[in-house]
Write a structure and sequence with these properties.
One of its GO terms (molecular function) is proton transmembrane transporter activity. The chain has helices at 4-33, 44-60, 62-81, 88-112. It has 122 residues and is an all-alpha fold.
Length: 122
C-alpha cells in the first residue's frame, strides 16, 4: 500500500495540472453558455429563496407523480389480468426491459467496486 502512494501523488499532480490549465477557460465557457440561469444579484438571501422555491415546487408535484404511479400500476394490473391477450412483441419488449435493468444494475455494481470484475455479475 505504501508503495502506491508516490504513484497516486504523481497522478494527482497530473490531474491538478490539467485542471489548472483548462479549468478557468471551461468555467468561463460554462458560465457564458448558462448565464440565463444565473440570478442577479447573487446573494445568500436569493439562494435561500430559490432553495425554498425548489423544495416547495417539488413538494407540490408529489400528488401529480402519485397519480401517475397509480395509473401505471392500474395499467400493469390490467396487463396481468389479460395476460392471455399478450403477443410475442409485448413479451419480448418486457424481457428486453428486464434485461436492460439487470445490465444497469451489474454496471453499477462494477462501478461501485472500482471497476473490478468480481462477483455474480460476470
Amino acid at each position: 500500500m505504501a508503495s502506491k502512494i508516490p504513484q497516486l501523488q504523481s497522478k494527482v499532480n497530473q490531474a491538478s495540472a490539467v485542471v489548472s490549465n483548462r479549468g478557468a477557460s471551461f468555467y468561463k465557457l460554462l458560465l457564458e453558455q448558462n448565464k440565463h440561469y444565473i440570478q442577479e444579484p447573487p446573494t445568500v438571501e436569493k439562494c435561500q429563496t430559490l432553495a425554498k422555491q425548489l423544495f416547495y415546487t417539488r413538494l407540490a408535484s408529489i400528488p401529480l407523480r402519485y397519480n401517475s404511479l397509480r395509473k401505471e400500476l392500474e395499467y400493469a394490473k390490467n396487463i396481468i389480468k389479460n395476460r392471455r391477450d399478450l403477443n410475442m412483441e409485448n413479451v419480448g419488449m418486457a424481457a428486453l426491459f428486464g434485461l436492460e435493468c439487470f445490465a444497469w444494475f451489474c454496471g453499477g455494481e462494477i462501478v461501485g467496486r472500482g471497476f473490478t470484475f468480481t462477483g455474480y455479475c460476470v
